[in-house]
Amino acid sequence: xxxxxxxxxxxxxxxxxxxxxxxAGYGIDGGVVAGIARDIVGVAADTGVEIAIVVxxxxxxxxxxxxxAGMDRAQADYMGMLATVIxxxxxxxxxxxxxxxxxxxxxxxxxQVAEPYIRRxxxxxxxxGRVVIFAAGTGNPFFTTDTAAALRGSEIGAQVVLKATKVxxxxxxxxxxxxxxxRYSTITFDEALGRNLQIMDATAFAxxxxxxxxxxxxxxxxxxxxxxxxxxxxxxTLVHV
Length: 241
Hints:
By secondary structure, this protein is α/β, with parallel strands linked by helices. About 40% of the residues lie in helices and about 20% in strands. It has helices spanning about 15-20, 30-45, 65-70, 75-95, 120-125, 145-155, 190-195, 200-210, 225-230, and strands at about 10-15, 50-55, 100-105, 115, 130-135, 160-165, 170, 185, 185-190, 215-220, 235-240.
């Protein structure tokens, strides 16, 4: 049986830390992470798509929260980077339990638990069919994991950034507040800016636009959504040049 035809051959999947927490809103929900891993493994096995992942850390610690409480912002951001490493190791464990070879590459060196991030090595892992999880953001304070996703996606030659969220796309208004809000199937970067749609932080959004790297926003908790996105079906919202 032939593999389904994927729209992209190499993707960068951005998963927020909040997605790992499930309904609890904090910490790591093993069942939720296992479900995300099953989707990733299934897509990689069935389509042959090379998958790199950037994980957030908001389920454990948010740098902005610490800074808001009076902590030094740079110190708080480094703590947030360490939180992303915890999430990366959790996801790696579940992926490998399901038979998927996985490497964690950290922007902050910690040789006992992760490889250092080296662009060419990351690309080689992908070419060998391994899922690569990028941890510790960019390795610098004041940058979000959205920016890390845009940066790593650009560096490794990904064809799209898949932004996995808790909503099933970009809407004309908040669908929880406005029953007339409609989901955009596609929208350009300029249209999103003109309508002040907060898809990613400004730095990440500008980098994707400048690199002509499209963004696909979708709901990671929706069954089969990741597969439909990779196959190019009408799932979520595609932001393009």
